[in-house]
Amino acid sequence: MGELEVVKAIQDDYPEEFAWCYGCGRMNEDGHKFRTGWLDERTVTVYKPKPEHMAIPGFVYGGLLASLIDCHGTGSAALALHRKNGHEVGDGAEPPRFVTGSLHVDFLKPTPEGIPLKAVGTIHEIHPKKWRVETEVFAGDTLCAKGEVIAVVMPSTFAVK
């Protein structure tokens, strides 16, 4: 699927108090720092697994793939609602934040280490506050996992007090 870099990521626009997620939070020093952006009408997150993400020598731990699908799903929903609200990444408007309502992952093939992973998402609005994101994760040209996230607009009770 070729190398790709996400230049404008929705996570770059999250306010600091909501940018601490282990998967996609830019403020979390120990986290993955997944970044999700547009790829035409689909979404993309590219991530190079680290040696500590090993399941067994030569292969990536499945939990990393689940985390990638999870954060890619919530980030994709944020991109979609932000665009629906008339905004784009980097335009100065604060994007909506989502939490995971459900996560389903199917592991299709062992994921080789040392290859950047590319998560590609297709977004479906199912309710004004609920979005379904289907994600395919590739290592090179190999489809390694598929998943689905039901992303829910973050409740106001999550606000920092």
Task: Offer a few descriptive terms.
single chain; 161 residues; mainly beta; six-stranded antiparallel β-sheet; two-stranded antiparallel sheet; globular
Short note summarizing the structure:
By secondary structure, the protein is mainly beta.
What does this structure look like?
There is one protein chain. The chain is mostly beta strands and 161 residues long. The protein has one helix and eight strands; from the N terminus they run E-E-E-E-H-E-E-E-E. It has one helix at residues 62-84, and strands at residues 36-39, 42-47, 54-56, 59-60, 98-107, 117-127, 130-139, 142-153. The strands form two sheets. It has a six-stranded antiparallel β-sheet with strand order 1-2-6-7-8-5, with helices on one face. A two-stranded antiparallel ribbon has the order 3-4. A hairpin with a 2-residue loop joins strand 6 (117-127) and strand 7 (130-139). The chain is globular and about 45 Å long. The termini are far apart.
Low-confidence stretches: none
Tally of separate helices: 1
Strand order within the widest beta sheet: 1-2-6-7-8-5
Structural class determined from secondary elements:
mainly beta
Strand content: 35-45%
The major sheet is characterized as: 6 strands, antiparallel
Radius of gyration: 15 Å
Mean pLDDT across the residues is 95
* Topology as a string of helices (H) and strands (E): EEEEHEEEE
Helix content: 10-25%
Quick one: overall form? globular
